[in-house]
């Protein structure tokens, strides 16, 4: 009886350890995937600054906001990827994603724009989950606390 209890406990512990490692890796992977869009978008706005200003103007967004948009995407994306100040960065990027959806993607007669709107709303949902749950164990937040 003691042997079977020990074997059962050992199996459960082993399974739990594997699940924790998998969830830690999944959290890191999820953060990197979510943030990659923002980091790459911020970098592309820097390399195509004039074209981005023209696009923002066509949407009625003041050009003076472009540096703030770039900083939000680039720094916010890096913060999420590294898991630094994750809850704050995720909350801000959720708001940024929703605002972008409302400003740039409301022409629902165009199916691409509707998909872009829903993509932004879905990304905001992912960021809200990060806001609630935090970065996980493989993060600067975890190491600094």
UniProtKB/TrEMBL annotation:
Chief localisation class: membrane
Pfam families per record: DoxX
Membrane disposition: Multi-pass membrane protein
Subcellular location: Cell membrane
Positions of transmembrane segments: 32-52, 64-84, 90-109, 121-140
Keywords from the UniProt entry: Cell membrane, Membrane, Transmembrane, Transmembrane helix
PANTHER family in alphabetical order: INNER MEMBRANE PROTEIN YPHA-RELATED (PTHR33452:SF1), OXIDOREDUCTASE CATD-RELATED (PTHR33452)
Family: Belongs to the DoxX family.
Descriptive protein name: DoxX family protein
């Amino acid at each position: 009886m003691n042997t079977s209890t020990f074997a059962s406990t050992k199996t459960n512990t082993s399974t739990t350890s594997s699940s924790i490692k998998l969830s830690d890796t999944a959290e890191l992977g999820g953060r990197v995937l979510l943030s990659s869009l923002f980091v790459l978008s911020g970098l592309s706005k820097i390399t195509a600054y004039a074209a981005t200003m023209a696009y923002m103007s066509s949407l009625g967004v003041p050009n003076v906001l472009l540096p703030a948009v770039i900083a939000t995407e680039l720094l916010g994306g890096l913060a999420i990827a590294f898991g630094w100040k994750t809850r704050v960065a995720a909350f801000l990027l959720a708001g940024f994603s929703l605002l972008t959806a409302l400003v740039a993607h409301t022409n629902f007669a165009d199916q691409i724009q509707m998909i872009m709107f829903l993509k932004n709303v879905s990304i905001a949902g992912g960021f809200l989950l990060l806001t609630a749950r935090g970065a996980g164990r493989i993060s600067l937040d975890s190491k600094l606390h």
